[in-house]
Amino acid sequence: MDGISYVDQGEGPVALFVHGVGTGSHLWRHVIGELRDERRCVAIDLPLHGGSDPRDDLSIPALAEAVEELCEHLGLTEIDLVGNDTGGAVCQIFAVRHRERLRTLTLTNCDVHTNTPPEAFRPTVELAARGELAQLTAVLLDRPELLAGTAFGDGYERIDDPKAVVEAYLRPILGKPGGGRAFERMLAAIDAKDLIAIEPQLTVLTVPTLLVWGTGDTFFDLSWARWLRDTIPGVREIVEIEGGRLFFPEERAGELVPHLRRFWAQG
């Protein structure tokens, strides 16, 4: 398992957390803080993010295989898998490819089917495809106060400490040799065809599945949670987090954790 970093805290049944593009395992720190006394909490840094190295292939299917590499390395089975943002798309592909590793699946606001990338994020992806995003993003390293006005900032209800957010997520990406270009390649590789291709497998995915969706998200409307409910036979319910935005698992972890506990207890 080359160049993949991860958080591994606690003992007990395994919960594996997958973040999306532009964040990292740090996104899950509050969730893990509440659960590590009762679960073994593993949170991956997807390639390029956090302490993980970049790779040539940064497509969503390739990221799913990086998750599989970690599972193989750690010998993880009977996993309660949890994903957010692009990480939710990664989890969908992982689930249909590696069903045997899963006990349950939880998806929070994330890319779904044709909403990949979401329309509100498409201008950012287009900047990446033109090779113009890395330079613009690098400005945030010295001027974090500008974060709230970016697509990244739109993922939060409020940002009390933009410098801390930039240091946790963006500097680890842009600080790597070639990190800016790799970030552009990753965003440009987000393609709906990868999730459209797995729709037939999702229609027969019986793994118990929970959907927890922030209703204030600019990128992933509640209608996409309903699409998942109507497509995946294993879906048990949709839980709505009123006003929650994309990164509510970080901002409002205390509201997510009780639903995870309840769902996992049902098995």
TrEMBL record:
Example of a GO MF term: catalytic activity
Domain AB hydrolase-1: 16-251
SUPFAM superfamilies documented for this protein: alpha/beta-Hydrolases
Alphabetical list of InterPro entries matching this protein: AB_hydrolase_1 (IPR000073), AB_hydrolase_fold (IPR029058), AB_hydrolase_sf (IPR050266)
Any Pfam family the entry gives: Abhydrolase_1
Official protein name in the record: Pimeloyl-ACP methyl ester carboxylesterase
Sections of the chain in a coiled coil: none
Single GO cellular component term: membrane
Signal peptide (residue range): none
